[in-house]
Amino acid sequence: MSIIRVVDLETTGFPPDAEVIEIATVDVVARPYHAPRIVDESCFALVKPGRAIPPESSAVHHLVDDDLIDCASWDETWPLFVCDAPPIWAAHSAKFERHFISDEMTVGASWICTWKCALRLWPEAPSHSNQALRYWLRPPQMDRRRAQLAHRALPDAYVTAHLLAMMIERSSVEQLVAWTGEPAVLARIPFGNMRGRPWGEADTSFLHWVLARDFDDDVMHTARSELERRRKADPPDDVDELDDEDETPPCQVPVTAGEVAG
Question: What confidence category does residue 254 fall into, taking pLDDT thresholds of 50, 70 and 90?
Fold first, then answer.
């Protein structure tokens, strides 16, 4: 049996300067030969930051400074969530949560990123955001009323827990942890005149052009994975190679790292 603690944070903005203002956790129990179970008891708390909440952040989660006046600090709040900490934690796009929750805080626990795992399990989804997956997959046991107020910690953790339960029914916990430890395999090209198109539609020459540049780890890993998929599907002699020193392949638009991030 594995207990996985799903966590969601709301913050004053983006790392590295942001601070936590809300945390929630929901536990998921994974047992061999049984359907995953979401534990009814959840834990959440508001947190008082050391700085004012910018209005653009309040526009996302609708928390303002006055809501947090009487709340404890992050250092005082965090230990309440690890007193019975399990060996595995999960979050949607866990890279964000791990900016605030260090390995030391979780005593070196493993992590599952439900965003990375959703890309592997449902590459055809129209979007891999938490809320888009919620409405596309429609988890059968999810209480819609408890999932309301998107971009608040407890409803978002609750949605992620249900997505995780569906993932566990399709893959092992060990596999989900392994996928999390690798760069993401993106479903769609995030730049250029092929932006939004599946990677499977890209020319082989375009994939080699990507690998000759300096994109982020997710883009590079995805291009390599797509080439490997094609090598397994087709004889090597059929692969149209492009020299790493060649310029932009035909019908492709040069892009910068900034365009990828956008």
Answer: very low
